[in-house]
């Protein structure tokens, strides 16, 4: 979803008359489940143009409510469905109900998104990542670092700024399924922990804390199951400025290519979307 607005396009958008069915469904879809549906719609329809943080297009940030001008909810629903003629903003196949859920998600995100107390600097953040943070002891960027934790080469493409900050200060708050840690206790009492790579009814595969790939038959273990991430909280280990700097640096880690920020090709192991 892309907003490239001129005065004539503003006028065209304003002339889109709200349909009665859209107005009705909008008022009905602001539950937690509906907002989750709206978030999914953003991820499948809008993220390619607007990015995970909603700020790829200059002067616009969909997830903080920053537009070229104030829009009513109804106007946004209409734009989502019909697009803006003669611009890169295309129409969508969303129903009125789906579009209303998406707009509800955008509005809720704008209300709840925290504003950093300090602005971050990516170059300083990289220095903190490499030194005081010791992040490479667990994580890997463009082939450099450890495989114990998730690969961060494209984390800025996958996670929003607020999510990156949360991962640093409260690592267990939102652990993505592909980043969970697992513990296996063998029948002789030996304990092995590591990041889960895969499991089914009979087997489990992890990469242990020594970066070794391990596979176990569940029937041959005394116990097995998920555990908290070993990643520490940096809430008190880093200053607010250092936290903001690291978040700024992680936000630059995206797909490599002309004009792209630091980052590399897709990692060979499950990528990080936050811890």
What does this structure look like?
This protein is of the alpha+beta class and 275 residues long. The chain folds into three domains: 15-112, Orthogonal Bundle (Cytochrome Bc1 Complex, Chain D, domain 2); 122-174 and 232-256, Cytochrome c-like domain (Cytochrome Bc1 Complex, Chain D, domain 2), CATH 1.10.760; 181-227, Roll (SH3 type barrels). Helices cover 35% and strands 13% of the residues. It has nine helices and seven strands, in the order ααααααββααβββββα. It has helices at 7-14, 20-28, 32-50, 73-82, 96-112, 122-130, 155-158, 161-169, 240-251, and strands spanning 140-141, 144-145, 181-186, 191-199, 203-208, 213-217, 221-227. The strands form two sheets. The protein has a five-stranded antiparallel sheet with strand order 6-5-4-3-7, with no helix packed on it. A two-stranded antiparallel ribbon has the order 1-2. The longest helix has 19 residues, at 32-50. The protein is globular and about 65 Å long.
Radius of gyration: 22 Å
Strand residue content: 5-15%
The largest sheet, given as strand count, sense and whether it forms a barrel, is:
5 strands, antiparallel
- Helicity range of the residues? 25-40%
Tally of helical runs: 9
CATH class of the largest domain: Mainly Alpha
For the record, the count of structural domains works out to: 3
Order of helices and strands: HHHHHHEEHHEEEEEH
Within the CATH hierarchy, at the fold level, what is the topology of the largest domain? Cytochrome Bc1 Complex, Chain D, domain 2
The secondary-structure class comes to alpha+beta
